[in-house]
Design brief:
single chain, 60s Ribosomal Protein L30, Chain: A, alpha/beta, about 260 residues, 12 strands, five-stranded mixed β-sheet, elongated, Alpha/beta knot, 2 domains, 12 helices
């Protein structure tokens, strides 16, 4: 079991390293690491066998949560104790709990199954939308989320907080080209579009091996993805509303997909 190293200087390289991971998606990808902050999300990661490169706690947090932190220590390469004022420099929250783990990014080795039902996100930009979508997907029993690599970072602090840990539990598939990936895996795809000529989502007979496609908040799905989809479907709307927020549209679409399962 590693011993805790006490950090007392604001100039310690650890401070800069963690702050860089908190703020930069590029840095997270380069390092293959991301930051988890707070007891609950660190425990979600621990329960899902995600390994910790670094565990960073304050003395008061260790005393308050000693038993569970000692479990985190077992899966951590290095452990550190920081003063409260130094911890605030690396925290991304207004009221830090005094627990941060620098985790190793899970390898993208999940495999889709033709017995599953999936949601695919193309160039989704907002981490809050991603988090909300992931929570709904888990609640409704969706088997995984397929994301294009140009979407927002699922391991960004805002994504993780918004998802309440769901992004650490739900299988993620990060792909470069959505159409190619879906075709290669033999899934039947349904492109969700804003188009009165598209088929109504409420009249679809969804089955295992199906995937819903949701696009960018401002621009929707790319023409390539829409053209290569097996079906183009739309959510019927009343009143003067022309479109829905991506998270709301995804929630309705996923409910339609699973309600008869």
């Amino acid at each position: 079991m590693p011993e805790f190293i006490e950090i007392t200087s604001k100039d310690n390289p650890l401070i800069k390293f963690v702050s860089g991971l908190q703020s930069s998606s590029k840095r997270r990808k380069e390092e293959g690491k991301f930051v988890l902050e707070g007891l609950r999300i660190c425990d979600d990661a621990y329960q899902n066998n995600i390994k910790f490169d670094k565990l960073i706690v304050t003395k008061s947090a260790f005393e308050k949560h000693k038993n569970i932190i000692e479990q985190f220590v077992k899966v951590s390469r290095n452990c550190y104790i920081l003063r409260e004022d130094l911890f605030k420099k690396i925290s991304d929250t207004n009221s830090p709990q005094g627990i941060i783990a620098v985790a190793l990014t899970p390898q993208n080795n999940n495999i889709v199954s033709k017995t599953g039902r999936y949601l695919a996100l193309e160039n989704l930009a907002d981490p809050s939308n991603l988090g909300a979508i992931a929570r709904t997907a888990e609640a409704l029993g969706i088997d995984g989320i397929i994301m294009t690599s140009d979407s927002c970072d699922p391991y960004a602090p805002k994504s993780l907080r918004s998802s309440m840990g769901t992004l650490l539990r739900l299988p993620l598939f990060i792909v470069d080209n959505l159409s190619s990936y879906i075709a290669d895996n033999g899934l039947r795809s349904f492109a969700c579009v804003v188009d009165k000529d598209a088929a109504s989502i409420s009249k679809q007979d969804f089955k295992d091996g199906d995937v819903l496609l949701i696009g960018n908040e401002a621009n929707g799905l790319t023409d390539e993805t829409k053209q290569n989809a097996n079906y183009r479907i739309t959510i019927d709307m009343q009143g003067k509303a022309e479109s829905l927020n991506a998270a709301a549209a995804a929630a309705i679409a996923m409910w339609e997909m699973v309600k008869g399962k």
